[in-house]
Fold:
Amino acid sequence: MTPEERAVFEKRRRGRNIALLLALIALVVLVYFIGMARVLRG
Structure:
């Protein structure tokens, strides 16, 4: 693998990791708000 190919590969992997992180954060926030809604509703 040439250095150029490696750089492209690492850039793609970094992008996927950031997308996965954002998806996980969104899921955590969603679960938190659903839990709060259930607690406040009684």
